[in-house]
Structure formats: structure tokens, C-alpha cells
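User: I'm putting together notes for a lab meeting next week and I want to include a structural view of one of the chains we've been expressing. I don't have a solved structure, so I'd like a prediction I can at least talk through. The sequence is below, exactly as it appears in our construct file.
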Amino acid sequence: MKPILRETKRFAADLTDTIWPQRSILSGHPARGALTPEDFTALSFITGPVCQSCGQPQEIDLGTDTICAACTARPPPWTTARAALAYDDVSRKPILALKRQGRRDGLKVMARWMCLSGQEAVAKSNLIVPVPLHYRRLVSRGYNQSGWLAAEISRQTGLALFQTALKRTRATPSQAGLSRRARARNVKGAFSVRRSHVKLISGKKVLLVDDVLTTGATLGAAARALAKAGAEEIHALVLARVVQPTDITI
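Assistant: Thanks for the context. Below is the predicted structure for the 250-residue chain, given as C-alpha cells.
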């Protein structure tokens, strides 16, 4: 029966692709999967040496304990941070399609990329917590893209997911267009761990999931709330991050 069932599912999938062909999340061209081969090669995956603290790509590999100058001067509130992609003109399109249009057909492959880039963080973590939206924005939008990514990572890794462990205590203006300092002020104290989840978070190693890391202000505020609740380690994992130029002049 199992071979027959597999053949039936394969036939149904082929028929569906014929009637409603899947399109690339990047170019919109017909694709067998989330991307065409050409689209895949256009994406900038972060695969080289990175700062072990913030995940910022480094131009030279100084070893597994490399910490960038920014993290040395001001250590971030998380233990590690990793990103699958560089946030640029190419990756922006599918990320905004997920964030603003609710396009979910690329979730599986996006979560797979995140798991690969953050495999050490995933292996160390006990549970997953997504960065939440304020309830007003959640009601208005109807979904939290970070929650979708976290749910798919949970399905692929088996890690327990706690969607509501963190809450956004106040509605903050959009971070778009704000400076680093303004972003930090905007989200300062904007998150807290729900009382019902404090015992759950205390002593745990948390995988904190978001879609994009720009300056780290939002992830930092969320990480501080988790640390306040007693999290032992906080590993931030995002789909993409803004890559800042690295100055290695001595």
C-alpha cells in the first residue's frame, strides 16, 4: 500500500504543479520548489568567517573565537547571533513578501537555511521563542512572520516552541529610517516575559527568532527581557542581517 500511496501523492503534486505552477519567491518565475537555480545563486548566503558574538561577516578568518571590534567594545545582550542571508537588494524581495504580504510558500526553505547557518545555536538550545508583535499590530496584520519562521524551525528541529513567552509591552513606531541610537531608544523596555512563562525560561538556553537583524536594537531588547527572566543563554537566529563594511586597518 505504501508504494501506491507515494505514487498517488506524487501524481497529485504533479497535477497541482501543472494547474497551479509554483513560482519562485524571488523572481516569480515558474520553479520546481521555492527558487529557480538562477535565483538561488543570486542570494548572498553568509558562509564565511563571522564574529562569534554577533554573526557579522569578517574579511579574514582569525579562528573560532573571533569577536569583532564592536562586540569587544560593547558586548551584545545575547550569547550568539547568526543569520542565513545578507540583507540586500536581492534578499529584500522575498523577505518583504513574507513580512508584508504574508507569503508563506518559502517558509520551509527559509527555515532550513536558518537551521543550517545556526546549527550550533540550535544544538545548544532548549526551546524557541519568536520576537513578538504588539497585539495591535498583530490584529491589524493578522500574523507574525517571526512566529511563522519559529514554528517552521520547531517542526524541522523538534525544539519546543513557545509563541507567547515574550510580549511586546508597548506599541513602538516603525524602526525604518531611524538611526542606531533612535532604534535603541524606540524599543528600550518594550519587551517582557509573561509571568506564566518565567519559570519556563529561567535556566534555559533560548533560541530567539526574528526575520531581520539591522542594528540589533529589537533583538537586544528582547534578549534583555529573556535574560531578566533568568535565561542561561540566548542564541539569536534570523533569516537575514544587514552586513556592515568591516575595517581591518591596523
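A couple of points you could mention at the meeting. The two ends are 68 Å apart (CA to CA). The first strand starts at residue 80 and ends at 86.

User: Perfect, that's what I needed.
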